[in-house]
Write a structure and sequence with these properties.
The chain is of the alpha+beta class. It is built from six helices and 19 strands. The protein is globular and about 55 Å long. The chain starts with a strand and ends in an 11-residue tail after the last strand. The model has no long low-confidence stretch (mean pLDDT 94). It comes from Marinactinospora thermotolerans DSM 45154. InterPro entries: FAH (IPR051121), Fumarylacetoacetase-like_C (IPR011234), Fumarylacetoacetase_C_sf (IPR036663). This is 2-keto-4-pentenoate hydratase/2-oxohepta-3-ene-1,7-dioic acid hydratase (Catechol pathway).
């Protein structure tokens, strides 16, 4: 099942994508794509209703509809660094023995076509196309990766945007460079785990102004989704709806030769096979951003 949230920023309603360009509104039976809903096994609970509404002709076109991030504001967003062999090599570092973990503010979520807003003074804002993993139940100290796999609600497309000057030049605490508003474009949908039984060979790509920047595959991950969920559960409680950004392949602006970063007016496009695509324009910081996802 492909879960979505559609409508104005801060007032999104839950929906289910059917086919490639239509949706079923489920706001009369689902409050939001939040922790409580994700813990309820949404694919199983909604499947009969979706089939009934499709048969009744209730599917509507997505054209012209704003798509928001597919999950409501999570309890936390966790980020994994140096998780692709080619990206680690591009930074001149070896793959770590254990996952490198940082975090970013949960209110950085934005939709897959919303403007990407540069923070004031930005001069090294970078792109990172990533597979996003969404937790499906409350877990702590999981026993093995099989149990961790069962705790995953599904997968989504993420751009883990990072302002490198704030990340590296302000005390070395990565969260500072990852937490500006709009710095986690997410979606267009959350594919429940049953839709993507094998996440070990998904192609990732990202272009800036039509020029190819990143090309990679999840097969090059050092630590896969189940291993990351298992690992993280030994340090913290993971809640339904928590988002894990699993790392990026080579081709970031920081590791390009010469380095290159985002500027106002740039157009960013990215995708990941069955997880859809994103496209948005980069803008200067000005007026405060619209209210974020609930």
């Amino acid at each position: 099942m492909y879960l979505m949230r559609i409508g104005p920023a801060g007032a999104e309603v839950p929906a289910v994508r059917v086919g490639t360009d239509r949706y079923i509104d489920v706001s009369d039976v689902v409050g939001d794509v939040d922790a409580a809903f994700l813990a309820s096994d949404p694919a199983a609970s909604l499947a009969p209703l979706i089939a009934e509404r499709v048969a009744a002709g209730a599917a509507r076109p997505l054209e012209g509809i704003r798509i928001g991030p597919p999950i409501a504001r999570p309890h936390q967003i966790l980020c994994v660094g140096l998780n692709y062999t080619d990206h680690a090599a591009a930074t001149g570092q070896t793959l770590p023995d254990e996952p490198v973990i940082t975090t970013k503010a949960p209110n950085t979520l934005s939709g897959p076509t919303d403007p990407l807003v540069l923070p004031p003074g930005s001069d090294r804002t970078d792109w990172e196309v990533e597979l996003g993993v969404v937790v499906g139940r409350r877990v702590y100290r999981l026993s093995d990766e099989g149990e961790a796999e069962e705790a995953i609600a599904g997968y989504t497309l993420v751009n883990d945007v990072s302002e490198r000057a704030l990340q590296f030049d302000r005390g070395g605490q990565w969260m500072k460079g990852k937490s500006a508003p709009t710095f986690t474009p997410c979606g267009p949908f959350l594919a429940t785990r049953d839709e993507i039984p094998d996440v070990g060979g998904l192609d990732l790509w990202l272009d800036v102004n039509g020029a190819a920047r990143q090309r990679g595959s999840t097969k090059d991950m050092a630590f896969g989704p189940a291993r990351l969920v298992h690992y993280l559960s030994h340090f913290m409680v993971l809640e339904p709806g928590d988002l894990i950004c699993t790392g990026t392949p080579a081709g970031t602006g920081m590791t390009s030769s010469p380095p290159g970063y985002l500027a106002s007016g740039d157009v960013v496009e990215l995708g990941c096979g069955p997880l859809g695509t994103q496209r948005y324009e980069v803008t200067e910081s000005g007026q405060p951003p619209a209210a974020g996802p609930r």
